[in-house]
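Worked example 2:
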Amino acid sequence: MADTDHAQGHRRRVLILGGGFAGIGAARKLKDADVDVVLVDRNDFHTFQPLLYQVATDLLEPAAVGHPLRDLFHDQPNAAVHQATATAIDPEKREVRFEEMTPIRYDHLVLGLGAQVNFFGVKGAAEHAFPLYTLADAVRLKEHILSRWEAADRDPALIDDGALDIVIVGGGPTGVESAGALAELYHSNFADDYRGIPQDAAHLTLVEGGPVLFSMFKPDIRAYTEKALAKRGVDVLLGEIVASVEPTRVTLRSGKSMPAHTLVWGAGLQGNTILDSLGLDLQKGRRIGVGPDLRVPEHPEIFAVGDAAWITDSETDDVLPQLGSVALQAGEQAGENIGRLLEGRQTSPFRYQDKGTMATIGRGAAVIQLRRGKTIKGKSAALAWGAVHLALLSTGEDRAKAVVDWTWAGFTHERSARITVPT
């Protein structure tokens, strides 16, 4: 496959790097196109990233947010899926190299590689912090938290050393949603599981470097969020920045040192390092600046979408956030534009349909800010949040798994996923 080209009679090839929202959106849009679609991802599954924190806090099983990639293309004969890690892109040769297989040439390339965690050079963060960007991250955090409670149950002296304490870094959706879910796990489940450990023995602290939480939201949502977190026992530190991370300690730039065996990192992302091989002047956070039709100006056969792309809103000129909804719509637009090019037609500009920004803080507590500025808070927002996220899940099977787990937890507070499986 890697060495074939038009001269050998093969159809044109669209190579898609990344099996996230953007990559899947692009591939599905090319279902009926006269082209070979090749999608490559380092994993053999698609991850529903917005719900990773629910895996980390034992509400959902990993299978509910990780779906086999190949399963999504059983009805698309022109698509092939490979599991491999891309190592370099050669735009001159129109070729991508991989660790595990021979290079693949392309006529059009879609970069939907997602992002990598950005620790901003914080000492010890890469070694000791727990990011929450991949399914492996979520499972690792889940098992670590369970191990800390088991250790404290065996040796109560570890409690004063911070074995049960968690510091969550970042006042955006990842940090806030993780803090709320962890608080409910602690107070609704672990309080019954570990009756010999006092309720006030564990501390959850959310650290945000800026002056407010949820800076993308209006003031009423910010105020609601702080109250909802406080109600759940989460301490919020604003204007504080983590200086260093050790296995059992977190030190802030202000000099404050906190005993904590767990630091959840939700503070920032940066583009995949493979983008450096393109030789482009990348935007902040190692993202590729694209034109209105999502093509890379220096290489018009390449489209960049999702977290890898610096996409400007056509109406506001604001840079679009790194959200699943943006990635999915951009991926679909890239696929549509490639289809247009294959038919000899002009591409069309990407117009993001903003259906609102939302986040959940805990049981019956969520927030939504609609495009025109209207805000919704509380139980009604939580119901809307659930409906939207169910719609975005890959298949009906995944939706059914989530509904069962959410419904059971809603009535009983039980989280049946809180077990550790030895490897």
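The chain has two domains: 6-42+84-117+269-342, 125-267+356-412. The first strand starts at residue 13 and ends at 17.
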